[in-house]
Amino acid sequence: MYMEKGKRNWVFSDGDLPPAGEKEPLGHEALMVPNMNEEAARITIDIYFEDKAPIKGIEIIVPAERVKCFRLDMPVGDQQYQIQEGQYSLALHSNIPVVAVFGRLDVRQPNLAYYSVQGFGY
Questions:
Q1: What is the largest distance, in Å, between two alpha-carbon atoms of the chain?
Q2: Alpha-carbon distance 26 to 29, whole Å?
Q3: 67 versus 113: which is more confidently predicted?
Q4: What would the pLDDT profile of 59-106 be if each residue is shown by its tens digit?
Q5: CA 94, 95, 99 angle in degrees (round to 5)?
Q6: Nearest Cα to 103, choosing from 16, 24, 19?
Q7: Domain extents for the chain?
Q8: DSSP code of 81?
Q9: Bridge pairing between strands 120-121 and 113-118
Q10: pLDDT tens for residues 6-38?
Q11: Does the domain spanning 7-121 belong to CATH 3.40.630.10?
């Protein structure tokens, strides 16, 4: 029996790029995408905001049997789009099944917190 290695669509609803902390300026969010398939994954990202139109169709590639980690405080994808501080959501659409995880390093308090969350895959 064949089992797909992930999903083709992922949604991460709680994007909120953290500002720099007082002592540690490197707070960030990241998108980690393992591709366990034997072909490259072509992924488009749509970014949704509270107060403006979405940015759609940002393209990223994850090579076969590799993982790519995308820092979201840096320019992303073929458009080199720079997400600004504040609320946003991500929707990923892949040509083949992949796994996607979203992580945040929040440095606004003395005891740093890094956590990751699984998105909604369909």
A1: 53
A2: 10
A3: 67
A4: 999 999 999 999 898 999 999 999 988 889 999 999 999 999 998 877
A5: 45
A6: 16
A7: 7-121
A8: B
A9: unpaired
A10: 999 999 998 887 766 666 566 778 899 999 999
A11: no
